Each structure stands twice: as C-alpha cells, then as structure tokens.
Amino acid sequence: MKRVFVVVIWLGVALLGAGAFGKIAFDRGEPLNATWFVVAAVCCYLVAYRLYSAFVAAKVLALDDTRATPCERHDDGRDFVPTNKWVLFGHHFAAIAGPGPLVGPTLAAQFGYLPGTLWLIAGAAFAGCVQDFVILFCSIRRDGKSLGQMAREEVSERGGFIAQLAVLAIMTILLAVIGLVVVNALKSSPWATFTLAMTIPIALLLGLYLRFVRPGRVLEASVMGVALILFVVVAGQWVADSPSWSRVFTLSGVALAFAIIVYGFAASALPVWLLLAPRDYLSAFIKAGAIFTLAAGILFVRPQVLMPPLTRFVDGAGPVFAGKIFPFCFITIACGAISGFHSLISSGTTPKMILRESHARFIGYGAMLLESFVGVMAMVAACAMPPGVYFAINSPSSIVGGTEDAASATISGWGYPLQTQTMTDLAHRVGELTLWNRAGGAPSLAVGMAQIFSSTIGGERLLSIWYHFAIMFEALFILTVLDAGTRVGRFMVQDLGGRVWKPLGRTGWMPGILLSSAIIVALWGYFLYQGVVDPLGGINSLWPLFGISNQLLAAVALVVATTILMKMGRLRWIWVTLLPMAWLVIITMTASYQKIFDANPRIGFLAYANAMAAQIAAGKIPVEKIAETQRLIFNQRLDAAVTGVLAAMILVLIVEALAQWYSILSRRKEPALHESPYVATRWAADFSGAAHGDD
Amino acid sequence: MKHAAKTTSRFLRRFWRGLREWCGDAAYERYLHSPGTQAGSCRVLSAEEFYVEQLNRRYSRPNRCC
Fold first, then answer.
1. Bond before A535 cis per omega within 30 degrees
2. Is A194 contained in some domain?
C-alpha cells in the first residue's frame, strides 16, 4: 500500500512538472507567471534525482558503502576530514556556484526564455549533474586524485598533459571574461565602484583579525564583515551624491581594467590570509544569502515574464552576441547546465571529505541541480524586465546606435518598444548615471533582482539600494573567483615553468612568486584589455571563447569518465557519459568552426579581422586610428588561434581515448584500472554516521 | 509544547554545528580530534599555525568555480 502511495506521489510530481513545462513551451497568450518556471524546474529536478541519479548510482557506478572512503583511510584533520553530507553539500555548492549560471542565462535570454530554460534543466539532469557525480565517484575511488592525474593514468600521459593545458587555458579566458563583466558593471558607476573598492580594506581588516586577534574564528569575523559591507552599500549613495567624491570613483572601462589587473596581481602575490581568504569568506556568506533571497523573492513576488519564448534573434543576428541558437545558446549557458570547471572541484577537495560513496549522489548530482536552479532564477530575473529595456542594457552602441534616441529607435524597430525616457527614469531610480550599453549581463541581472527584491522589501524607496546590493554581490564573488583563480593559475605556471627553469617551481621563492603571478595576470589581463577596447563590446567575442573552453574541459572530463567506465566493464552503460560527451564535442567543434571561419564579421574572428584590414586598405580608417585598428585585427586573429588550439586539444584527446577504447574493446590490452585497493570500512557498524555528525 | 521546544532546540544546535563546520570555524577542533593528531606522531600545530597552513593548502588548488 505504501509503495502504491509513493508511486502515485511521484507520478503526481512528474505530471505537474510535465504540465508546467508544457505551459512554458506552448503558451503564447498573456505573459507567463514565473511560478511556472519554478514548478517546472523543481519537479524535473525531483524526478531526475529520484530516478536518473538513482539509476546511475546503482547500475552504472554501483556505489559501495562497505568500501572505506579516502577520508576514513587517511583522516589527518587537514585534507582528509570526514564531513557530514549536508555540510559537504554546502562546501561543494559554494565551490561550484560562480558567476557563470547568473551571467550565462542572462545573456542567453536574447533568444527568448524558452531555449535557455530547456537547456538549463535538461542539460543539468543528463549532462552536468552526471559529469559532476561520475568524476566525484572516480576521484573517491582514487584517493581524491585530480582530473589531470586521472587523465594521465587512465587515458594516457599525453591526455593528462592536455587536461592540464586545458585547465590553464580555461582559467586564463575565464578570468578575462569575468573581469570584463565586472568592468561593465562598474563603468561610470561611482556608487558601485566605491562599494566594491571598500570591500578590499574590509577584507584586509578581517584578514588581520583572523590571523592575529582570533585565529580561525571565521563566523564572527564574517558577521562583522557582512555588516560593514552592507554599510558601504548604503554609503555608496552618499559618495554618488557628492560631486567631488563621485568624480574620484567614476572610472572608464580601461581604468577599471587596469585596477582589476593590479588587484589580481596583489591577491596572487600577497599572503593568502591577508586578502584572498577573508574576501572569500565574505563572498560565500553574501552569495548564499543573495541566492536564497532571490529564490524567496521570486516565489513571493511571482513576477510576470515579459520576454517572449523566442525572440527574432534566433536567426543569429542578436545584439548581445552574434550566432544562432545552435550552438551558441549551449555555449553561452555553459555553467548553468554543464561546467567543465566543476570536474576540478569534484576531483579536488570534495572526494577527500566524503563519508561514504553513496553521498556522492547527493553531493555531486544534487549540488549541480541546485546550480541549475540558480541559472533558472537568473533567466527569470532577466526575462521579467521589458525586452526593450533588456536589449538597451545589454547591446553595445556600435549595434544599436551612438545616441540614446537612435538606440531607442533601433530597439523599437526590432519589435521591442522602448522610450528613451524609460531608460533615463530607470537609471535614475536605481541610482546610476546611465544603463545604456552595459553589456556583460551583470547590470541587467541586477535590475531584475532589484525589482524582485524591492517588491518584497522596501518598495520603490529601496530600489537603488537593492540594485547596488545586487551589483556588489555579483562583483564581490566574481572578484573572489578572479583572485582565487589567479593564485591557482600562478601555481600552474610555477608547475609548468619549473620543468623548464627549476627555481620557478619553488613555491616559496619570492622572485618566482612575483614572476609567475605577473605571467598569469599578463595572460588574462591582455584578453581583458582587448575585451574592454573591442568596439563590439568584448562580450561578443570573449564569452563564446569562455563557453567553448569551459565545455571543452567538460568534454575532457567525460572522456576520462567514459574510459574509466569502460575499464570497469560497464560497457552496457557507457552511453550515460558517452552521449553528453558526444553532444559537447559537437557543440564545441561547431562553435569553434563558426567563431574562426564564419563569413559574418560579428561571428567569425577572421572575417572581422579581414573586414577591418579591408577598411584600412580602402583608406576608410582615419590615420590616427590605424594603429588601434591594427591591434584589433591582431586580437581577432589571436582569438581565432586560441579557439583553434582549444579545438585541436580536444581532438587530440579524443584520438588518444579512441586508441585506448579500441585496445580495450578488441581485448588487445588488459584494461588497467588505477583504483585504490578495496578496504572495508570500519564504520560499517556505525552507518548511522552519528560519530561524524551525519545525523 | 515541550516536545516542540526540544525539537527546535535540537534543530538549532545541529544548524549551528553545521554552520560552524561549513564556514571553517570548527576546523581547528576537528584537527585536534583527528586520528592523525591524536596519534601524536608529529607536532600539534597551534590555532594560528593551523589556520595559515590550511589556507595555503586550500588556495593552491581550484576551489572556486565559474
């Protein structure tokens, strides 16, 4: 009887989800209520978790709770620490949730709400969650080895080297593109710039407190820090209202780019306890708070989604970024559906702290579902504003026109009515000088979030405070990714450089630290600068490049996972990782080809470079602008080369893997699985987990 | 009523413990109670040394994602 009841409940959840999905997909009448998105997403996640993840856990991976996990065998209280599964879920989610699932869906909203929402939900259930879960499992079985180490051992030496290079490449492009998002969020905004600048002294203060006054008392320090940050969000208004201070904090894009580059270098070279770690603590608390507030706000306000399901830009002529739904919607959404970067977290800290193998399902699969839900909320927030306003904020002036009236006319001409006064009023209401041409996703998301927050608490009076809170929240944790990423990139440069020149590999040697920090900062700083000065807005070229590199890393992870499943003798089930891998290879290869060779200068890097070269040859570029244009041509060719190298890396890895798979399938070689030997858990009698807080 | 108060208090205690574990507040206590430390094979670090050492280790590998 109980079983029938359970089946009926799950059938109800599935039917409710299908109904909500149907409403989202086929309703063409009045604007939809955001509740439909929440219901569709949550029901799909529940069914996916209950059925698909259970199937992967039982049949594909055959999780074994009698097997001791790395933290039981090596418990040292430092790296290997047995951790309650809810706490570890929180750790893992805080590590994987970055700006990607917020910015990607916001940018992909230019196609309408439908394609992005479908991919966010389906992509997470069948690709992203599977990748995180399987890689976590593989790493648990190998004492917490990293993706690169697993690629080296299970695929080939060359495979491991390619994985390492892919990580460095994605890191460089990631840091540049998120830097660009921050620049576009802070440009010409004294309030936002002041608020973010103040987070640095606050972090330094906390760093000193945690190091010398109360070592390791993170909670009390974070409470103080969050209070100070909320104060500076409010104080930013006074700075914006003061003509003299406002001038000090009104910075151009290039000035902000250099400020971020200097900050990245400092965060990488300074002791980690002084700036990086305290900022990370603040960011983690504010991130968790803002995400939960956004979810509660959407449920409370239930905003109408004003964006149509499909816009006219499905044809590839979108103003935010150029390219058709296939492959660019998938490349743009990236982290909200599947992120290669997650495989580094799943093969990093988490496997060393997991109590039992069965927790990998909840932590690996479950945390990615939550990340996907963050993406759906970002999509709702972006689509809840009038489409005309969305395009006005996210389109570069080179596309919509140099003046406000010209931009209004262009956007209205697309079928999304917009009055110039609407934008002036909105900018005034959120306390900004202007909201035109603020590509990058952060400002439009902040407007959407502020409208939802202010409808919940404070009304119109607090709209500007909420807007700047949202900007601060996005910029704060983007900078946290930027400084943590720069530091990790520094270690990678030291590791690779140390093979060529030994002293560089010494992580405690100050000249080596400064040199390697300068190298990694110069790498991403160059791309950031080129994005800032790009007449097409930077996001148009850098975000797809980031998406390609991210999805490429996911393909690398799935190649490793497929090889391991094959070696484990799970041939019958390898489609679980093989199909998402094939899909990722198809989209990354198509996107790479189009980004390099497409004849449309807004899509193809080479076509853009050639068009500008032709303009110089035809004498259409003023003499004083020729040097600048030549730099732009070089940048486009560089982007084409980088895209080509990324695509070539995945092709080489696939060839390596295919050779390995052939020798396994043809039984030419005995499959050598590099798992740690089986050790029975000593906690078998204690499976309630009470001793480790697993109650 | 008494039962509800007891349940709430137990929930709050667990939440507090979880929060301290999540943010790293309880890391040093964990370290002191770990088998590796209890075995006494190597010198036990002070709270300050442990804090700095833990941060150096944590931020030398990818721990924040895009």
1. no
2. no
Burial class (CB in 10 A: 0-12, 13-18, 19+), A575: middle
CB A156 within 8 A of CB A674: no
Residue in the block written with tokens 């944590």? B58
Cα separation, A552 vs A571, in Å, equals: 24
CATH number at residue A259: 1.20.1740.10
CA–CA distance, A632 with A608 (Å, rounded to integer): 9
pLDDT at A690 exceeding the cut of 60? no
Q: What is the pLDDT of residue A500?
A: 85
Domain membership of residue A288 as a residue range = 2-189+250-665
What lies within 8 Å, CB to CB, of A456 at 6+ separation is A296, A297, A300, A301
Question: How far is the C-alpha of A421 from the C-alpha of A410, rounded, in Å?
Answer: 15
Greatest CA separation found in chain A?
84
Domain residue extents for chain B? 2-58
At A326, list the tokens: 């296939």
Is the CB of residue A513 less than 8 Å from the CB of residue A498?
A: no
Average pLDDT over residues A568-596: 96
Lowest mean pLDDT among A122-131, A222-231, B52-61: B52-61
Three-state SS for A487-511 is: HHHHHHHHHHHHHHCHHHHCCCCHH
Cβ contact A285:B19 at 8 Å: no
At which residue do the structure tokens 């070539």 appear?
A648
Query: Cβ of A70: how many Cβ atoms within 10 Å?
Result: 22
Establish if A623 belongs to a structural domain.
yes
Residue A693's pLDDT is 44
Q: Considering only CB atoms, which chain A residues are within 8 Å of B47?
A: 215-216
What is the radius of gyration, based on Cα positions, of chain B?
A: 17
For A305, the 3-state DSSP assignment is strand
Counted domains in chain A: 1
Model confidence at A695: pLDDT above 60: no
Instruction: Say if the Cβ atoms of A277 and B64 lie within 8 Å.
Output: no
Confidence of residue A685 (pLDDT cuts 50, 70, 90): low
Cβ–Cβ under 8 Å, residues A535 and A504: no
Q: Quick one: angle between helices A190-208 and A276-301, nearest 10?
A: 130
pLDDT of res. A684? 63
Cβ of A216 within 8 Å of Cβ of B51? The answer is: yes
Q: Which residues, in sequence order, are CB contacts of A215 under 8 Å at separation 6+?
A: B28, B46, B47, B48, B50, B51
A691: confidence class by pLDDT, cuts 50, 70, 90: very low
Q: Are A378 and A102 in contact (CB under 8 A)?
A: yes
Contact (CB, 8 A) for A307 and A109: yes
Closest CB to A77 among B23, B36, B59:
B36
- A485 with A270: CB under 8 angstroms? no
Query: How many angstroms away from the CA of B58 is the closest CA of chain A?
Result: 8
* Res A555: pLDDT: 93
A513 vs A493: CA distance, rounded Å: 10
Of A81, A95, A212, which is closest to B63 when you measure between CB atoms?
A95
Give the CA distances from residue A538 to residues A117, A398, A589, A636, in Å, rounded to whole numbers and listed in that order: 25, 12, 22, 11
Specify whether the CB–CB gap between A138 and A344 falls below 8 A. no
CA distance B8 to chain A (A): 15
As a whole number, the mean pLDDT across chain A is 92
CB of A151 closer than 8 Å to CB of A362: no
Domain assignment of residue A425, yes or no: yes
Q: Which of A124, A134, A125 is CA-nearest to residue A63?
A: A134
Mean pLDDT confidence for A211-228: 93
Specify which of A75-84, A156-165, A590-599 reaches the highest per-range mean pLDDT.
A590-599
Q: Which of B47, B59, B62 is opposite residue A277, by nearest beta carbon?
A: B59
- Flag whether A591 is in a domain: yes
CA distance A443 to B62: 27
